[in-house]
Amino acid sequence: MYTHVFSTKKNGVSNGTLYKKTFIEHFEQAPMYVAVLTFVGFGVGTIFGYLRDFMRAWGLEKRNIAEEREQQKDFVPLYQDFENFYTRNLYMRIRDNWNRPICSVPGPQFDLMERVTDDYNWTFRFTGRTIKNVINMGSYNYLGFAETEPTALKTVTKELQKYGTGICSTRQEMGTLDKHVELEKLVAKFLGVDDAMVFGMGFATNSMNIPALVGKGCLILSDELNHTSLVLGARLSGATIRIFKHNNMQSLEKLLRDAIIYGQPRSRRAWRKIIILVEGIYSMEGSIVRLPEIVSLKKKYKAYLYLDEAHSIGAVGATGRGVVEYFGMSPDDVDVLMGTFTKSFGAAGGYIAGKKDLVDFLRTHSHSAVYATSMCPPVAEQIIRAMKCLMGLDGTTQGLQRVRQLGKNTRYFRRRLHEMGFIIYGNDDSPVVPLLLYMPGKIGAFARRMLEKNIGVVVVGFPATPITESRARFCVSAAHTREMLDTVLNALDELGDFLQLKYSRYSKSSHPELYEETRFELED
Amino acid sequence: MSAAAGVGQQWVLVEMVQAFYEAPAYHLILEGILILWIIRLIFSKTYKLQERSDLTPKEKEELIEEWQPEPLVPPVPKDHPALNYNVVSGPPTHKITVNGKECINFASFNFLGLLDNEKVKSAAQASLKKYGVGTCGPRGFYGTFDVHLELEDRLAKFMRTEEAIIYSYGFATIASAIPAYSKRGDIVFVDEAACFAIQKGLQASRSNIKLFKHNDMADLERLLKEQEIEDQKNPRKARVTRRFIVVEGLYMNTGDVCPLPELIKLKYKYKVRIFLEESLSFGVLGEHGRGITEHFGINIDDIDLISANMENSLASIGGFCCGRSFIIDHQRLSGQGYCFSASLPPLLAAAAIEALNIMEDNPDIFQTLRAKCEHMHKALQGISGLKVVGESFSPALHLQLEDSSGSRENDVKLLKRVVDYCMNSGIALTQARYLEKEEKCLPSPSIRVVITVEQTEQELDKAASLIKEAAQSVLN
Predict the structure, then answer these.
(1) Cβ proximity of A331 and A339 under 8 Å
(2) For B76, which of A172, A304, A361 is closest by C-beta distance?
(3) Does an H or E element contain A305, and which?
(4) Which residue of A157, A196, A515, B230 is most buried, as measured by CB atoms within 10 A?
(5) With contacts defined as CB-CB under 8 Å, which chain B residues touch A178?
(6) Count of CB contacts below 8 A, A vs B?
(7) Please, which residues have CB within 8 angstroms of residue B465's CB and are 6 or more apart in sequence?
(8) Residue range B440-449: mean pLDDT, rounded
(9) Cα distances (Å, whole numbers) of residue A498 to A148, A198, A442, A449, A502
C-alpha cells in the first residue's frame, strides 16, 4: 500500500525553480478494513479453487479445459498444474470482462458484440446482436484521432490505394520507402530534435533497441513500475538491472551514488555507462515522471536518460509535445526520446528520436532495422496527417483544440471523481485515471454493471497490479463530450454507492444541495 | 527407598505430562514456535556483513567527479555499408523504383504477388472506412475486433488446426511464443541456422540451448542421447524438464528445408515437442500452400506449434501461431507480444483475410511459383565466382562467393559491386543483412535473390544473365 502522499511543490520551496507549475499527485491509502476484506475475498476464492480442483480431479465435475493429445500423454507436462491455479479458478470466473470484441471504430462510442456464456465463462457464444453506442472509457484514444470521417482519412485512403498494405522487406534491405523518410523528418520536427527513426511496433521498439544501446558491463536503473517491453529490452541486453522505487528520487540518487562509488559487483571495475529507464506517464498508476529532478540527477552523475513516452506524447504539454514540454524543458535534456503512435495518433508503431549520432547508430545496429519489417505506408500516412494536424500544418487549429479539450476533460473528470469520494491515483493532469476497487468480487461486479448501463470500462487485477490494489482504469479522450462524461460520472456515482466504492476520507461534495439531507439525517 | 524414589520419578513424569495437557493452547503454540526458531538459528548459515566502506565523504565525491562514462553510442563511420539505405519511391511491387531508378524487383518477399492486388486493396479500404486505422488498445482491453476473430478462424481452418492466434508484428510472433512455454531449466534443441527472431525468443526464455549442426539429424540424435543419459542420473528433475526442438520449415539463412519426417520420428522416440517456424514456407510449399507439413504429407497434429509471419506470402503485417487449443490458448495470457501490445490494425487483418481467400481460390499459383523457382535455380547455375545456396523449389535463394577473399569486409564490398551493377541495369537485388556481433552462427555474406509469381520467364532469364555479367566483370 502506498503511504498517503498529498504533495504539492510550488516555486520557492526545497527544489527551488525546478518545477514551473504545481505538481500534485495522489496515492491515498484505503482504510484497514478494506485490506482485510480484500484478503478474505482472495482467501475464499482460493478455498473454492481447491475444492473445484479436487472435484475435477475426482471426476465429480466436468473438465472444461483442453487436454493433451493421447499420443503425447507420456511427454513431460507442458504446464505445471499450480501455475494455472489462478487462471483456472479466479480469472475464469470474471473472464467475460476482458477481450470484449468490438465491431466499430474505437472512438468515444463504439459497438460491442454481444456474447453470452452457457458454462460459466469457459466458452463464449455470440448472439449475433450488437450493443450499440457504448461509451468508450477504455481505449487509448487520447486525442480522438481514431475516427472514420472521410475528409479526415482522405490522404490515408489515397496512400492505401497507391502503396497497398505490405512491405515484404526489412529497412536495411528493400523496405525503406519514401514515406518512411517523410515520416521520420516530420517526427524530428515535431519533437524538436535532430533526427528520428520509426519502427513497426511499439513493444518491439523497446525490446529491440535497448539491447542495441547497452550491453554487458553497463548498468540499467529502471523504475519499479516500468512496462513489460522495457523490462524485456533490459533483460535481453545483458546489462545489470537495478530497480528504484516508483518515482522516488532519493532511491534513484542512492543507486546512482552507489553504482559510481563501488563500481561493478565483485570486480569493482567502473561501469561503462549508466542508463535510466523511465516512462512519461505510467499507465497503471496515472503518475507523471518527475522529469526535472531526474534530469538534474542525470547531469550531476553523468548518466543517460531513456524516456518512454508511450502514453504521454500528444496527451500532455501545451501543444501535445509530451512531458518534456509539460515541464518546460528542452528535448536536448533527454538522451533518448522514445514513444509510440498507438495511443495519441490512432495508428501503430513506435519511434526513437534524439541526436543524429544516436539515430545513425540505430539505423545500423538496431535489431529491428536488420530483421523486422518496416512500418506499413497507410499507417505511416495516418501518423503524418495526425502530426500535421497537431502542429497546425494543415492550416487549422484543430490540433491545438484537441489538446486543450483533452486537458479540460481530464481535469473535470478527475475533480468530479475526487469530489464524489473515490480513491483515484495519479497526477491531476494525466488522462489515465485509475479508480481503486480493491476487492476481487467488485472487479467483476463493476465491469458488468457498467456495461449494463452502456459504458465500457477496463478493470485490472493481479498480476498486472499488486494483489490488494485492483482497479478500474479510465482513459479520458478529447473526443468525449461533456454529456458523455456526465453520463459516466452519474453512473459511477450510483454504482459507487451501490458497491460501496467511495473509500476516500477527503471527499468534498460537488452538489452540496443534493447531499445535505443525508448529512443532516446522520447527524441526528 | 529406591522404590519410593522410582515412584517419585514416575510421579514427576506423570505430572509433567498432565501439565502438558492442561496448559493453555497459546502457551504451547508459543513454546513450539520458539523451539522451531532456535532450531532454525542453529542450522542457518551465518552471513557476512556487507563490506563496510572506509571511504570518507570527500573521497566519494572525488570518485563521482572522476568517473567518465563511454559515449551513449559509438560514432558510426560515414561509409558504413548499412547506413545509406536504398529508398524506394512508391510501392515495392514487381516494378520498383529504387533510388530513382526503375528496376524489376528481385528483393522483396512478395512471393504470391499480393502486394498490389486490387481485391486485397479494396478489402483494406472497406475496413479502413469502417474501423479507421489503429485499434487503440491491446487485445484484452477493447482491442479485439471482429476482423481479428475472423482472421484467426480462417487461418485455423486453412491450416486445418483447432485454433490460431495473431500477433501484430512478425518478429514478435516467434519471439513471444517460445518464452511462453519454455522457461528457465527447460531444454531447447535448435538448428544452427535459425533466424534471429528465434534466437531472441530463446534468449528471452532463459532455457538451456543446445545447437545442432544445420539439418544434421545424426548430430541432433547424439545430443538427444546425451540428454537421455543425463536424465537417468537425475530422474526427478527429468520428469519436470520440458524439451523442445525448434526448426524452420524453409530456412531464411540457407534456403533449404528441414527433414521433417525424421524429426517426427525423433520426437516420439525421445519425447520432445516440436515448434516449427514457417515464415518462408507458408504460402509457398505444399499443394495448397499449407507449408511444409503438406509438402511432406505429415499429419499437422504431430507438430505442437506452427508459427509464421504474414509479411511474406500474405503481403500484410503481423504473424500467427496455430496448433491445438491446448497449446495455443496458453499464449492468450502469457504471450508478451500479445498481451502487452496493441492489436493488429483492422485494415491489415482484412487484407490478410482477402489474401487467404485468393490463396484458397487459386491453388495453382503455388505450382506456378515452384516452376519459376526451378527455372531460376537452373539459370543461376554455372556463374563463375558465385554459387547458389538453396533448394531448387525455394523462392528465396542466396548467392555466395565461391572463394572468399579472406576478410568479411572485402567480401561484402565485392558483393556490393555486383549488386550495384545489377541495379544500374534494371534488376533490384539486395545483400542479405545480418548483425555481425549478435548472431550466434553468422552466415557468410551473400546476395538475396527472391522469385515471385509475377516475374515472367524473360525477366528471370534477364536477371540470371545480368548476374553472370556482373560476376564476370567484378570478380575476374
Answers:
(1) no
(2) A361
(3) strand A304-308
(4) A196
(5) 87-90
(6) 355
(7) none
(8) 90
(9) 37, 48, 11, 10, 10
According to the model, what pLDDT value does residue B8 have? Answer: 56
Q: In chain A, what residues touch B162 (CB-CB under 8 Å)? A: 66
Backbone angles phi, psi at A185, to 5 degrees: -65, -40
pLDDT digits (tens, 9 = 90+) for B334-378: 999 999 999 999 999 999 999 999 999 999 999 999 999 999 999
Q: How many residues does chain B have?
A: 476
Environment class of residue B269 by beta-carbon count within 10 Å: exposed (0-12), middle (13-18) or buried (19+)? Answer: exposed
Which residues 6+ apart lie within 8 Å of A369 measured at CB? A170, A171, A172, A197, A362, A363, B82
The answer to whether the peptide bond before residue A463 is cis (omega within 30 degrees of 0) is yes
CA distances from A144 to A315, A350, A455, B141, B251 (A): 11, 18, 17, 17, 43
**Residue A81, pLDDT score:** 74
Give the closest of B64, B89, B144 to A260, CB-based.
Answer: B64
How many Cα neighbours within 13 Å face the side chain of A435? 32
- Range in A271-275, A480-484, B433-437 with the lowest mean pLDDT: B433-437
Q: How far is residue A436's CA from residue A423's CA, in Å, rounded to a whole number?
A: 6
CB contact under 8 A, A160 and B345: no
State the DSSP H helix or E strand holding residue B189, giving kind and residue range, or none if neither. Answer: strand B187-191
Q: Which band of pLDDT confidence, cut at 50, 70 and 90, is reported for residue B10?
A: low
DSSP string, B51-63: PPP---HHHHHHH
Strand residue runs (E) in A358-505: 426-427, 432-438, 455-456, 458-460, 470-475
B169 with A341: Cβ contact below 8 A = no
Q: Could you tell me the pLDDT band of residue A6, with boundaries at 50, 70 and 90? A: very low
Q: Which amino acid is at B247?
A: V
- For CA atoms A265, A267, A268, A270, the dihedral sign is negative
Q: Of A101, A146, A272, which is closest to B134 when you measure between CB atoms? A: A146
The answer to whether the beta carbons of residues A18 and A2 sit under 8 Å apart is no
- The mean per-residue pLDDT over the stretch A251-258 comes to 93
Task: State the Cα–Cα distance between residues B55 and A468, nearest whole angstrom.
Answer: 42
Q: Taking Cα atoms as reference points, which of B73, B81, B82, B108 lies closest to residue B94?
A: B108
**Contact residues on chain B for A69, CB-CB shorter than 8 A:** 301, 324, 326
Q: What is the dihedral of CA B209, B211, B216, B219, to 10 degrees?
A: -80
Tell me what pLDDT residue A9 has: 39
Residue bearing cell 505506408: A377
Give the chain B residue nearest A211 (alpha carbons).
Answer: B438
Q: Report chain A residues whose CB lies below 8 A from the CB of B110.
A: 166, 168
Instruction: Indicate if the alpha-carbon torsion angle A453, A282, A469, B329 is positive or negative.
Output: positive
Residue B149 burial (C-beta neighbours within 10 Å; 0-12, 13-18, 19+) = middle
Cell numbers that stand for A299 in this block: 547531469
Residue A291: count other Cβ atoms within 10 Å of its Cβ. Answer: 24
Q: Do A376 and B73 touch (CB under 8 A)?
A: no
The predicted structure's pLDDT at residue A354: 93
Contact (CB<8Å) B169/A203: yes
Q: pLDDT (tens digit, 9 = 90+) per residue, B13-60?
A: 888 888 777 778 888 899 999 999 999 998 887 666 665 567 788 888
pLDDT at A58: 84
Whether A507 has a pLDDT exceeding 80, the answer reads no
Amino acid identity, position A370: V
- Taking only the tens place, the pLDDT of each residue in A400-417 is 999 999 999 999 999 999
Please give the full DSSP string across A105-141, using - where no structure is assigned: --SSEEEEEEEE-SSTTSS-EEEEEEEEEEEE-SS--
Give the amino acid at B161.
T
State the ipTM, two decimals: 0.90
Compute the C-alpha angle A345/A346/A349, nearest 5°: 80
| A464 in contact with B, Cβ within 8 Å | no
